[in-house]
# Entry
Amino acid sequence: MKIEINPLLGTVRGRIGDLVFKQVNGKSYVAARPHPRSKSSYSGAERAKQKRFAMNTKLASAINKIDVLKPLWQKAANERMSTHNAISKANYPSVGDKEFLIAPKLTPDSLGIDESRLSFKYSDGIISICFPSDVFGLVMNPDNDKSIMAAGVLYLSNPVYDCRDDFKFISLNSDPEKICEGKDSVLQIQLMDIHKQYIDSYANRSFFFCLISLDKDGNLLNTVSTFAESF
# Structure
């Protein structure tokens, strides 16, 4: 609540104790200084909402760092919002306060995919993905689709050490690999040492990723999303 001050007192600004004096549209007001709420004062529902918002915001930031997917989100944003906000809006229904309710959207039109013909492996800091590119309809036109890559977010939760955050997202992508007709595509992601340390610090590790075909200039042509693997 704020109270207008008699103009005869002149212009008043500043703070005295718990009172704050300020100018708004040429008028002087005094109001009680707001006090931050203690964490213990929030209800369980309020804390859950805060955690859900925090998780969704960090997820959106991680997806927004994947440059090859930016054109898709820019189109979805349609100049009405930032790509980060478009990603955040699309993914809010996917996120709970502790875990994902469904797989996140890495692209605006993401769908869960049958992984029966995809091989996934993690060993010594290397993620390996092997698949026949034709089975997912990823290569639409061999004359245009020249290479394939994988990109996504690594989701870490349930920290082993108290010093870690409750969860962490890491943006990852493979290098583009040339498409060879009649051969399986093998994509590898070499993790940095700091990423390997993070993986060792969390009990639960999931990788949400999409497969991407590119033209000869490295521009996105087609995507298949979202795959989910735990290790």
User: Anything to note?
Assistant: Residues 147 and 178 are 4 Å apart (CA to CA). The longest strand covers residues 147-159.
